[in-house]
Specification:
Layout: H1 2-28, E1 29-31, E2 36-39, H2 55-64, H3 72-81, H4 87-147, H5 150-159, H6 162-171, H7 174-183, H8 186-193
Antiparallel strand pairs: 1-2
Helix pairs in contact: 1-4, 4-6, 5-7
């Protein structure tokens, strides 16, 4: 679930950054989609007021550029509807994206920390269960080895792993443990008791 959330957040961040980059580049260059990377002419005709354009300058520009097939109303519409994107606006957008990204990272880090705590608590419970099960097993084995004769117990202990054999030997009463160690072969006795 957390991985999916992170993937979605990364996708959204990349999508927003790519879209912002396309908008920025499209405003900076003539037409990036036609691979026309000539800088745009940022000079706009003089605006007398917000709703009225100096039509004389538009007419002059229209006459100068014979390749344009726009009429006067199309020029007015294109100039009035075009909103120039400034560097300051882009920086604000980038800052808001960074803030959103940081907030998403904080949320995902917090959820990740919560999951790690849950996993640690589960591990602690499992360890306690396994430790208690092992302790019960060891107590039962000690009782069994206490009742066996030393020679039989030594044969069985030699077949156990060293750490299990040590735990059982050191949990037995001293007298019984000494009898079993006496019956072990010398190498095994030295290895289990640490006597060199």
């Amino acid at each position: 679930m957390l991985a999916k959330l992170i993937y979605v957040l990364v996708f959204l961040l990349v999508f927003v950054l790519t879209t912002g980059g396309l908008v920025y580049l499209n405003n900076k260059y003539e037409n990036i989609f036609k691979f026309n990377f000539a800088p745009t002419n940022q000079m706009q005709p003089h605006v007398k007021n917000q709703n009225q354009i100096d039509t004389n300058s538009v007419k002059n520009n229209k006459q100068k550029d014979s390749t344009m097939n726009l009429n006067e109303s199309e020029v007015k519409d294109s100039v009035l509807t075009k909103k120039p994107v400034t560097v300051l606006e882009l920086e604000k957008q980038i800052d808001s994206l960074k803030n959103a990204h940081q907030a998403l990272m904080d949320i995902s880090n917090r959820k990740l920390a919560e999951k790690e705590k849950e996993i640690q608590s589960i591990k602690t419970v499992e360890k306690a269960r396994s430790d208690s099960a092992y302790m019960k097993w060891k107590e039962q084995m000690v009782k069994i080895y206490e009742t066996m004769d030393a020679k039989s117990a030594a044969k069985l202990i030699e077949k156990l792993a060293d750490n299990l054999a040590r735990d059982i030997l050191f949990s037995l009463k001293n007298k019984k443990a000494a009898q079993i160690i006496k019956e072990l072969n010398p190498e095994t006795a030295n290895r289990l008791t640490g006597i060199q």
